[in-house]
Amino acid sequence: MEYSLELNPRPFEAIKKGAKKIEGRVPTEHNKNVPLDKLKKGDKIIFINNSNGETMKVIATGVRHYKDAKTMLESEGVKNVLSSGGNIKQSVESYNKMHGYKENIKKHGIYAIEIKSSHK
Asked: For residue 34, what pLDDT is reported?
């Protein structure tokens, strides 16, 4: 399958450079077009920079589900998941500030989508 997801400029560039290897996502109104619970290894994702419209195609090399952001960040590593850096506590707070994430993580958990560029 192929899906499209919007990204802010900083994580978009971090993925493009290969520094960010995992996209953490929670089912919300903003990504309702992507059934995260059905996403699987080999699926293609087109990331769209929500600032300038630039696109980048990646391949999901793994998808893991976690009960909360702290567990995901401990397992996957903050530097692999967040382009903003910081420690686990700061990173959990960062996720909780995203629109709809705090409530929806409690309901649905969080998905770690391991990715690689499809043009390398």
From this structure: 86
